[in-house]
Batch of 3 targets.
Target 1
Amino acid sequence: MKRLSFIALLLLLPLSSPLWAQADSLPDGLGTDIRTPEGLRKLIERKDPRFVIVDVRSPAEYAAGHIPTAINIPGGISADVKAPPSKDKYLVLYCHGGMKSPAAGEKMRADGYKHVLVWGGIVNWPYARDVSSK
């Protein structure tokens, strides 16, 4: 039983650490606010140019509906994007259910992005979604 609990903890740790590791370093104390859908919506409404919302799902999933103002960087691989965000921006990543965005965040950190916050999944977004004609 102890072994099973230890294995479960090891599996969950990578999913939670990227969010908490960067949340305290966000400007203006936004680390606490941004973790909720309401906080992210307020950030979007503020139109703070320091932040970029990043959808790491496939282009088809992004086109079907994404969080307003989000850009699409599938899998977190910015080399495949025509105009990737500046490396000094604060990136807020999300995927569908929150399972793929941590790995995408690690890829973006390895690519030189210093401020990466893994928000979770769009399934937690209760507000209207934008759609693309792509």
Target 2
Amino acid sequence: MVLPARFRADLGARVYLGQQGSSLAVYSEEAFVETSQRLLDQVRNQEIDPQLRLAFAANTVEIEIDSAGRITIPQRLRELANLTGDVIVAGALSHVEIWDQATYEALQSTLTDVVQEQFKAGGTIN
């Protein structure tokens, strides 16, 4: 698949692709190192189950972006994220996410409700 140009400049030539819930996360090398370190710190501090570290490592692969901006998503990761047809590529602050289009569209109404409830309760995003 082709990664949108607006994301490629921030990602670099090599990315790390791994499972992120119902989607796939695409990390730049820097973001991957930061995420990995944060995960290890949480394991050391007994904040999360050590098996999560293993699951994160086992379901993450290093991928080169070719000169046309394409990446190849391994079959195992396509299956984990249920990528069977059209996909949505969305920015997620520290990384990029690849979603099955139907899954993403179903999630959007829930996300809209969550944001609206936050603002109704006097909350802000800052």
Target 3
Amino acid sequence: MVEISEDARNIATKYQEFQRETEALRQEMSMIQASISSCDQTIIAINELKVASAEGKIAETMVPVGFGSFVYAEVKNAGRIIVDLGAGFRAEKTVDEAIDTLNSRKEQLTKILEQMSASLTKFIQGMQALEVEAEKIQQLGQA
């Protein structure tokens, strides 16, 4: 009887570990999804600036001035974009180069998200296997 309760305790510990890992993974996946959405929104904004510039229109946008505050500003040169390269580095690029850089980053993030999704599936399958094992132990205890 002692062996069964120890097995049950081990299963419960493993299950809780899987739950923690699953929750952490879901949070990370949520942050990556937000980054992908941010890439999409940035690409849309850059394309809108590109179209306005090509049509000879003055593009107006909001510029952050700090602490969640913005001012309206006219974009004088929509042909050059400063793009974050990561690790604190930025580079000036043409509109098309900036879009390519953002699309590349989005592809990388999507691949990472797919890998994380596969890991999440494994954790969930592990949890389901532990549930089946716990059920068997419970049935043996009742017999």
